[in-house]
Amino acid sequence: MERLLGKTIGELKQITSELGMPVFTAKQISDWLYKKKVDSIDKMSNLSILNREKLKTRFVIGSYPPTQKQKSQDGTIKYLFKTISEHFIETVYIPEEDRATLCVSSQIGCKMNCLFCMTGKQGFSGNLTANEIINQIQSVPESPKLTNIVFMGMGEPLDNVDEIFGVLEILTEDYGYAWSPKRITVSTVGIIPGLKRFIEEGRCHLAISIHSPYDNERKTLMPVEKAYPIREVINLIRQYDFSHQRRISFEYILFKGLNDDLQHAKDLAKLLAGIPCRVNLIKYHAIPDVDLKSSDTAAMPAFRNYLSSKGITCTIRSSRGEDILAACGMLSTKEYRIFAEKSF
């Protein structure tokens, strides 16, 4: 059976047309899916019994709960979801005093194979569907509390761009969640075709993983540098206006003795000069079999202070959920097997 959750209004209109339903039925269905959040077609009470039966011949709602939950000592919660293909993905809820953020996955594993990331180490098992992405947002228990969504979980969002665009439409359009695009950030390592489309067609904030201002060094950390060099990514960014409501940020993980000295800060400032942006400095979280170390305590403030002195807004991102492997670069479902989940 196909799943209704994750369908855009255009797709719902196509479905209702094929089933011989009135045009306005598509909007009724979207209200039930994204505003009332029903879990059964039978609960769509303003649809005729005949039309509900027609829908049920081909569709189910397609919402389903997580199968596991882990809570960090800092309040961060990591959820495990089983995919349609019977793999697993992870989603992270990050509560703060003034906001509640959900870190959403877009793929099962990842093709990018960044040296410092556990998701890349598990390999790639497929793109998530719009249903599987929206379900993470709608089915975590904290869904009503959410103030922000970041596409920074498992996978590279702009390597799954068609499904991501459908999800962003549902999140921001009036027929869906009607969220402000300013509440949503999409992260990328710099997949230029998807990035260009996202900049031109999207309205949400953008975060680019950079991690080094030097081509060869970045290549050792991020193989994507071979296909899409960071300088080409920056040149693309410079063609667009990010000086208004839409924000662009650059994510920079600091590794001890590799990219955390002031020379790196100086050359990063030169690379980003003139771009109205924010740099987020991130602690490296050690993963098995990778010979990288976290920067010393003093290195991150010194790096931040230099960038700030050059007029670049720079923040040190707080590390959350490290004790449950929920922090940046630590998500992985490699050890899970089909039907191995444990209910909570």
Account of the protein in words:
This protein has 344 residues and is α/β, with parallel strands linked by helices. It contains 12 helices and 14 strands. The radius of gyration is 21 Å and the shape is globular. The two termini are 27 Å apart.
Please render the helix and strand layout as text.
Blueprint: E1 2-3, H1 9-18, H2 25-35, H3 49-56, E2 59-60, E3 68-71, E4 77-82, E5 88-95, E6 100-103, E7 107-109, H4 118-121, E8 124-127, H5 130-139, E9 148-151, H6 161-172, E10 184-188, H7 192-201, E11 205-209, H8 215-221, H9 224-227, H10 230-237, E12 248-254, H11 262-272, E13 278-283, H12 299-309, E14 313-316
Helix pairs in contact: 1-2, 5-6, 11-12
Quick take:
The protein has twelve helices and 14 strands.
Question: How many DSSP H or I helices?
Answer: 12
Question: Which range best describes the helical content: under 10%, 10-25%, 25-40%, 40-55%, 55-70% or over 70%?
Answer: 25-40%
Largest sheet: 10 strands, mixed
Enumerate the strands of the largest sheet in spatial order, edge to edge or round the barrel: 3-4-5-6-9-10-11-12-13-14
CATH second-level architecture of the largest domain: Alpha-Beta Barrel
**What overall form do the CA principal axes indicate?**
globular
* CATH fold annotation of the largest domain: TIM Barrel
Oligomer: single chain
Query: What integer value in Å does the Rg equal?
Result: 21 Å
